[in-house]
Amino acid sequence: MAQHGAQQHGNDRVTILIVDDEVQIVEFLRMGLTYEGYHVLTATDGAAALQQVTTERPDLIILDVMLPQVNGLDVARQMRQARSDTPILMLTARDAVDDRVSGLDSGADDYLTKPFAFKELLARLRALLRRRGINTDRYLAFADVQLDRETRQVTRGPRAIDLTPREFDLLELFLLHPNQVLPRDTILMRIWGYDYEGESNVLEVFVRHLREKLGDDPVQLIQTVRGIGYVLRA
Asked: Which of 6-15, 34-43, 125-134 has the lowest mean pLDDT?
């Protein structure tokens, strides 16, 4: 039986508020986090963010430092002054130590510098949510394939599968969305990043390697949907 999970606590999906005035970043994060099963809200300035924190009560906030009207540092300070303990993951294009210290001193719980890997952002989100007692699925499984997101171990039946980090990420994405056709561009954006400009056939190469390691020959699990992308289907 296939198992996969939208991130949940109680009966509701975890809600994440993205606050950034860069449209490309917002759309990249909104699409990726929605695929992960999160309920996503967005705001493009600090004033709107503060309003949504009050009215929507998100479980976590991804907050850019450079915002119009009220900047990210002031948003974090005002939230903490209002005694909000909502976790804040702060984003910035600057990597100076003083900038990181300023972000953490303003009330942020963690800090990520642009450009970032979506995989790292997800790991930081999960860590922040665990501190609040919100646990995400550790194990993903489909047919006889099982993946452990904490130890990064993969098995097919009794056999351990040795995957590279990128192959692991690709399999994890398929396991999160069984029976769902994933467009090629969506996979590239999720695994290689929104600004990927490398080899055009990189996805095909990695899918081939993943099939070989899983022993998926003839193809039974990771199926090609011609002209669109791939689907994990038994």
From this structure: 6-15
Q: How many CB atoms lie within 10 A of CB 126?
A: 19
Rounded Cα–Cα distance for residues 33 and 44 (Å): 17
Mean pLDDT, the chain, integer:
87
Is the Cα torsion angle 202, 208, 187, 64 positive or negative in sign? Answer: negative
Task: State the Cα–Cα distance between residues 221 and 158, nearest whole angstrom.
Answer: 17
Residue type, 199: E
CB atoms within 10 A of CB 145: 21
Q: What is the mean pLDDT of residues 10-18?
A: 75
The rounded distance, in Å, linking the Cα atoms of 40 and 18 is: 7
CA angle 73, 76, 79 (to 5 degrees): 150
Alpha-carbon distance values, 127 to 95, 121, 135, 166 (Å): 21, 10, 9, 21
pLDDT value for 12: 53
- Lookup result for tokens 């303990």: 85
Q: Is the pLDDT of residue 3 over 70?
A: no
Per residue in 20-70, pLDDT tens? 999 999 999 998 898 777 899 999 999 999 999 999 999 999 999 989 889
Q: Which domains does the chain carry?
A: 8-131 (3.40.50.2300), 139-232 (1.10.10.10)
